Amino acid sequence: MPDMISNTSCMIILDNINRLDILQKLYQTIHLTEEVAQEFGKPLANWMTVNVVEDKNYLRLLNASVDLGEASTIALAVQMPGDHVMILDDLKARKLAKQLDLKYTGLLGILLKAKQQNVIASVSDILAQFRQVNFRFSEKLEAEVLKLAGEL
């Protein structure tokens, strides 16, 4: 299983609906950067590992294109050896990751995997909770995710 590197938005949204456990149940350990941990702003669970981005110049270069949390997540992915996947929802960050040939998924992809592995019973129920905490996604994307989850 690849190492998972999370950006801040995924953590905040799951925390807002009291479902950070989804990440732990799916991946056991989540890697964060110091910048992401600071943006998250809450005490971290013991299954969250904070990593230091070593190349601060590269981090600044990336930060010129995307927010600091996304920049540090991408910089860590470049720095880390082995197989890893980033959790990114920001479109600019995803485009940058694609240009760098890095693997990523988003929060909705995580929900699909959680349903497939019986971590959650319903993607639809979690999406409804996401809407309550102002996580925005199109109706088209919602229909696509629900179809893939077998709920439409």
TrEMBL record:
Any matching Pfam family: DUF3368
Native organism is: Methylomonas lenta
Which protein are we looking at?
DUF3368 domain-containing protein
InterPro entries on file? PIN-like_prokaryotic
Record's superkingdom? Bacteria
